[in-house]
Amino acid sequence: MEDWRKIIKENINMKNMNTLKIEAIAKYYSEPENIERLKDCINFAKKNDLEIFILGNGSNIIFSKDYYEDTLFINMKNFKKIQRIENKIVVEAGVKSKDLINFCIKNEISGFEFLAGIPGSIGGMIKMNAGAFGREISELLDELKIFDINSYEIEWIKKESIEFKYRELIGLDKKIIIAGKFRVSYSSKNIIKNKVKEFLKIRKKKQPSGFSAGSIFKNPENNFAGKLIEECNLKGFSINDAFISEKHANFIINKGNAKGKDILKLIEIAKNKVKNKFGIDLEEEVKIV
Q1: Active-site option among 59, 167, 212, 245
Q2: Domain layout of the chain by residue ranges
Q3: Catalytic residue at 37?
Q4: C-alpha separations of 272 from 158, 216, 232 in Å
Q5: Which of 94, 219, 251, 275 could join 80 via S-S bond, C-beta 3.0 to 4.6 A?
Q6: Which CATH number fits domain 4-75: 3.30.43.10, 3.40.50.1820, 3.40.630.30, 3.40.47.10?
Q7: Active-site annotation holds for 285
Q8: Is 5 in the active site?
Q9: pTM for the complete prediction?
């Protein structure tokens, strides 16, 4: 790489790159435009002994530090193509859920409506096996296009060779998701639009507005994290500008200037209270960086 500064930016504030709007400075940050530039980023990280963190829409992460000196943050936002191939669609990692939904409506493709309102990108949603209303994105997935950080090889792998669990994907260490290939079904635009509207209506009714990372904890088996936290009388509990939502206790809201450490303190308090009262260990759904 002749001049790394052409693709690597320095000292970037990532406040607008996470839905909690937490301020965090990345010493090294990049938005590669294609696979070759992605390879350049990996070369730079290896040469400088940096950790690599892949960013999507930042809807499921909590920045725990104010400054990241030893990490290269790679934002996949420029990988945003959607291609229709026979009865399947190939969706690149940087495609936002709302753009996928709009594509589906335009092309009368059904099955993705339950993703409406999830503020993530496809790569991140695959990585966490995002779901709602009893559905998960892995149900629709057929293959994954991945980039191997060690070998620099790009390959398509079948869904059957990947282990999907509740809100996580197992077995893709040192791999970067480039795209997913999904099976599709068809319906009329009006039917799809109505389903999307209904899902959005339910979300608006149940979930709080404001800056959040969505659900903080996974739901324990046969229980609900929000219900357990609520029964510990933690709704509205705050630390500085971070508070547990009064509408849904599994959401932490940033009033504007919350720090990552404020969010983490609330998480720890909720975990301890639930453990002491119910003997249940809550597990984070969000990724703490």
Answers
A1: 167
A2: 4-75, 82-206, 225-288
A3: no
A4: 40, 14, 10
A5: 94
A6: 3.30.43.10
A7: yes
A8: no
A9: 0.92
